[in-house]
Amino acid sequence: MQYKHFGVMIDCSRNGVMTVAAVKRMIDALQKMGYNALELYTEDTFEVGDEPYFGYLRGRYTGAELREIDAYAAAHGIELIPCIQTLAHFTNPVKLPRFWEIVDVNDILLIDEEETYRFIERLFKTLAENFTSRNVNIGMDEAHMVGLGKFLDRHGYQNRFEILNRHLGRVTEIAKKYGFTPHMWSDMFFRLAAGGDYYAKGVHIPESVRRQVPESVELAYWDYYHTDETVYDEMIAAHKEFGRGIWFAGGAWEWHGFSPNVRFTEQTMRPAMQSVMKNGIDNVLITMWGDNGSECPRFSLLQSLYAIRRYADGCFDEKTIAADFEKLFGVSAADFDTLALPDVIPGETTGAPNPCKALLYNDPFLGILDVAAASVPEIPYAAYAAQLAAAKARAGEYAYMFDSQEKLCRVLEKKAYLGIRTRAAYKRGDKAELKRVAADYDETVKRVQAFYEAFRTMWHTEYKPFGFEVQDARLGGLMLRLKNCRARLDAYIAGKIDRIEELEETLLPREADNPKAGLEWNDYRHTVTTSEL
Fold first, then answer.
1. Residue 183: which of 125, 248, 261 has the closest Cα?
2. Alpha carbon of 294 to those of 61, 68, 210, 514: distances in Å?
3. Are 352 and 338 within 8 A, CB to CB?
4. DSSP 8-state symbol, 344
5. pTM above 0.90?
6. Which of 420, 261, 266 is nearest to 356 (CA)?
7. CA dihedral (470, 472, 477, 479) positive or negative
């Protein structure tokens, strides 16, 4: 079928703001694969006149950079579509006093406050000055607490459908003033109707609510999770009841830590694209989010993006897709698949596990995730590192990604079960074994340093420097913690201290009824400590 838009949305708001050069490289790749649209998701990472604190120290795009990207995209048959937020997800701006007056609760803007709409108009004025496209993604997703903070204090409780629609009407008026046709994430309509569940079965938005949605607003149904085609069919049918244009947003899974999840992307996007074709959806976005720090290389998803594009044209033969990908990019699909190895648990064939980040930051003395690590088959990180090293030699311009992933596996070869080994030897009172384990702390620090350098190279190849200070803090903190643990082991072995208090604790699973809980998380704060961070 013919698509009006078949595009990619790249998250440039979770620390990783792609450089202009990297965006151009991505545009080149998208053009080769048959994509014709690109959205750079910018919550606050673009320069706005009269708002100096918006995107402050966050690597925001200047107007000149946006115009340069826009022109390059147009020259390559790609429509650069602005992608912003106009209700929630103002996670970083609300840290600054400038924006407190227009905050309802958490990261949600204050509806019915005139300064809120003056602020939103400044956003649209900037978009009009720097983008050729007059399509715009206005966000408005996941505003779970809308109307329940400062709004509630000022106006009392009001019907939240009505609050949302009233705000949408104001935003749409501003968009129209600058010539934009908006599309928005649709989940809030469904969550409010189903008590918080976006994908609840049999949900139909009341006609009285649907009528209030401005006719010019198109709805973007996002779904990165389901492997059953009928779920997509039912959700698309529910969206069609609105009588508005529909976008489908799927996902190329790269937002779960350091590695792409190629397998789960395939398991979800094959049925999704079958449903898209069957239901005649002609606007499609494949999202590439960057949750918790944008640690995954953007270009590691090229093979997945190509496969999804072929699915959308009705080709589901993986051998054909793989062969054609290699002809386009000069690297085999099988080699690209190895980039996912750090998160592969032997025998696990479904879902989106994330053991590499969990085990990297799992504290060797606290052992927050030791129960989880012991509940799954041992992950062969040495073998994974060898496969990545072999693929790196054939990867050409993409070798930097394979180098980073290889060195991550080298770290985890030592680090993944270091805490388990430490605790077991300590509980036995085996100081000879503890001496051997202690030496591995030193080796792990060396390997973390090597990974840090490779990861830093990856970052500066794809992203602006802003945001890497978070990785400095995380990986630097890991190295310092390992050194401290080694020093305390030495003190215990030498008899300078008679116990290590953390190792005296009885470990519990993260969830009482799920021993594996935690290996799927992508949350540094909850992985590294149960204390305040």
1. 248
2. 17, 23, 36, 28
3. no
4. P
5. yes
6. 261
7. positive
Tokens 């750079």, located at residue: 40
Decide: residue 466, CB within 10 A, 0-12 exposed, 13-18 middle, 19+ buried: middle
Within 429-495, residue ranges assigned H as helices are 431-462, 468-493
- The HSE-up count of residue 287 (CA atoms within 13 Å, CB side) is 21
Token pair for 201: 């079965």
Of 100, 194, 188, 222, the C-alpha closest to 149 is 100
The burial class, CB within 10 Å (0-12 / 13-18 / 19+), for 20 is middle
Which pair of structure tokens corresponds to residue 444? 């792990």
Residue in the block written with tokens 């913690």: 481
* E-state strands within 153-312: 181-185, 218-222, 246-251, 283-288
The rounded radius of gyration (Å) of the Cα atoms in the chain is 24
In angstroms, the CA 392 to CA 185 distance is 38
Number of other residues whose CB lies within 10 A of the CB of residue 96: 12
Rounded CA-CA distance 215/213 in Å is: 6
- Whole-angstrom Cα distance, residue 32 to residue 325? 10
314/325 Cα distance (integer angstroms): 16
Alpha-carbon torsion, ordered 328, 26, 255, 61, to 10 deg: 180
* Tens digit of pLDDT at every position of the chain (533 positions): 899 999 999 999 999 999 999 999 999 999 999 999 999 999 999 999 999 999 999 999 999 999 999 999 999 999 999 999 999 999 999 999 999 999 999 999 999 999 999 999 999 999 999 999 999 999 999 999 999 999 999 999 999 989 999 999 999 999 999 999 999 999 988 988 888 899 988 888 888 888 888 989 999 999 999 999 999 999 999 999 999 999 999 999 999 999 999 999 999 999 999 999 999 999 999 999 999 999 999 999 999 999 999 999 999 999 999 999 999 999 999 999 999 999 999 998 888 889 999 999 999 999 999 999 999 999 999 999 999 999 999 999 999 999 999 999 999 999 999 999 999 999 999 999 999 999 999 999 999 999 999 999 999 999 999 999 999 999 999 999 999 999 999 999 999 999 999 999 999 999 999 999 999 989 999 999 999 99
Burial class (CB in 10 A: 0-12, 13-18, 19+), 208: exposed
Tokens linked to 139? 């966000």
In total, the chain counts a number of residues equal to 533
Give kind and range of the element (H or E) at residue 386. helix 381-392
